[in-house]
Amino acid sequence: MKRIAIYCGASKGKDESYMNEAYQLGKYMAQQEYELVFGAGSVGIMGAIQDGVLDHGGQAIGVIPNMLNEREITSEKLSELILVDSMHERKNKMAELADAFVMAPGGAGSLEEFFEMYSWAQIGIHEKPIAVFNINNFFGPLQTLLNHMISEGFIDAKYSRLAPLCDTKEQLFETIHNYKPLGVRTYD
Predict the structure, then answer these.
(1) How many other C-beta atoms are found inside a 10 Å radius of the C-beta of residue 138?
(2) pLDDT tens sequence across 133-142
(3) Which InterPro entries does the UniProt entry name for this protein (predicted)?
(4) Each residue of 101-129: b (16+ CB within 10 Å) or e?
(5) CB 113 within 8 A of CB 91
(6) Most buried among 6, 23, 32, 82, by the most CB within 10 A?
(7) Global confidence as pTM
């Protein structure tokens, strides 16, 4: 395993610990010789993770659609910038490049990109590890929703372990390394 795709926000959040932990995650990735695959932004959680990686000699590969590159703050420090034509191409390219998928705090875009990888795992498009970096229990409410979906029969119970919440960067990488594919979704 070499490359980790991280879906996260271009905002920094209200608590400075989000940015601090994001930077430490990037630093840890570089020290462990993982490459970052992400949305190419230089601000918010994205920028903090990237800075942690690059400040410690790691590699950061940014993937961004042309239309966002023209409107957003694309990092100028990237090891590699990949421009694509659409958000669909961005997600496909990130999935192709990555050996594992992680979600860190962010908004609707982060959720959308991450849950595409989640649903792809359910239907067998990939068998790559998935995990969630749960800074400040940010994703506690999301886990409650997923548990509700499972208890109501909309997600198979075996997927309760598909995207575990990890409170530390060490736990996050231990989870990724010990990942076992859960198999495809079955229909009753």
Answers:
(1) 20
(2) 999 999 999 9
(3) LOG, LOG_fam
(4) bbbbbbeeebeebbebbbebbbeeeeebb
(5) yes
(6) 6
(7) 0.94
Nearest to 78 by CA among 32, 36, 23, 33: 36
- Identify whether the C-beta of residue 61 lies closer than 8 Å to the C-beta of residue 80: yes
> And the tokens for 110?
């982060």
CA–chain centroid gap for 118, Å, is: 11
The CATH number assigned to the domain holding 138 equals 3.40.50.450
Residue 157 lies in a domain: yes
What domain range is 85 assigned to?
Answer: 3-177
List, for residues 43-58, the tens digit of each pLDDT value: 999 999 999 999 999 9
Cβ atoms of 63 and 6 closer than 8 Å: no
- Phi-psi category of 171—alpha, beta or left, where left has phi over 0 and alpha has psi -120 to 50? alpha
* HSE, side-chain direction, 13 A CA sphere, residue 3: 14
Number of domains observed in the structure of the chain: 1
